[in-house]
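Example (one chain per record):
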Amino acid sequence: MLDKISLENILFLDIETVPQHKEYHELDDDKKMLWEQKTQYQRKDEFTAGEFYDRAGIWAEFGIIICISVGYFTFKGNKRNFRVTSFHGEERQILTDFKSLMETHYQEPYKLLCGHNAKEFDFPFIARRMIINGIKLPSKLNLFGKKPWEIPHLDTMDLWKFGDYKHYTSLKLLTNILNIPSPKDDIDGSMVKHVFYIENDIDRIITYCEKDVIAVAQIFLRLRGNALLDEQEILHV
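Predicted structure:
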């Protein structure tokens, strides 16, 4: 039961990723061949490997993390706050700082990570990029040998499925049908590469990522039957 979980024991998160290089031609010959093979099924005959490279950010082997935003609840008496912060900069430092947060404040088995479609994307992407960067996995992402009920992850898309494994619902759709203020009022995922590499506007991406974290927390509250956060309860730190 979701209402049995203490909100203070959950770290809500979202990541933003981009292709490892600005342009396809920056890949070496081996990586070009591997990219062509990796994406052959998705591209079919509609796109060349070069034309498809804008989407490289969705694969951990060819993309990098440029921002991890997190949010967590705090309670003082009857006062509830949701604190949001972000890690950005060089990828290895982002991952190192995020690992430090987990090991310092979310090490206990009863503490959980939560995202939207995070079991399929965010969690494995972070784990793969940590391994690629030579960073030892923290316990919350090291799933080797763990039974399904031992995995400390929550996923709002998974919760919304109610066992219907073929059902995909986007964050934007879920916020809409649950009457939650939409986080998508500026950019969307398809624009992140352009904003990062062309506009060099990481602050805009951070804002976008943090809004997604807030939206995930709002969905979780609605699934529990709790009151939604209002603006005064959200703190950017």
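Caption: The longest helix spans residues 202-224.
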